[in-house]
């Protein structure tokens, strides 16, 4: 799992919510290089989407250049997440980082949460 890729995937503008969900599932399995190879069954089971919806979502993600696919004989397809394309498509205010490499965080006032 690549937390950095998942962070960028959350911010990526996607055509449909199904595409976002599929991108998040691919990101959940991706190495730090953005490579993963989940099976159709795994994608169906973990997203709750139909095979047809996943197929459409993968096509949308490929069209947006967020992913590329490489068919492999006798095994699952290899997916590569294009983090640079995701970063470039994400509005600047959603991808800016502070000095630690994290997006600006909202401070939670515990007095409000706890009532003390």
Secondary-structure map with pairings?
Layout: H1 3-11, H2 17-29, E1 35-36, H3 40-47, H4 51-63, E2 67-70, E3 78-81, H5 83-89, H6 92-95, H7 110-114
Antiparallel strand pairs: 1-3, 2-3
Helix pairs in contact: 1-2, 2-4
Features:
single chain; 116 residues; mainly alpha; 7 helices
Structural class: mainly alpha
Helix content: 40-55%
Amino-to-carboxy terminus distance: 38 Å
Number of strands: 3
Provide structural commentary:
It is built from 7 helices and 3 strands; from the N terminus they run ααβααββααα. By secondary structure, it is mainly α. A 3-stranded antiparallel β-sheet has the order 1-3-2. The longest helix has 13 residues, at 17-29.
Provide a concise account of the structure shown.
The chain is 51% helix and 9% strand. The chain has 116 residues and is mainly α.
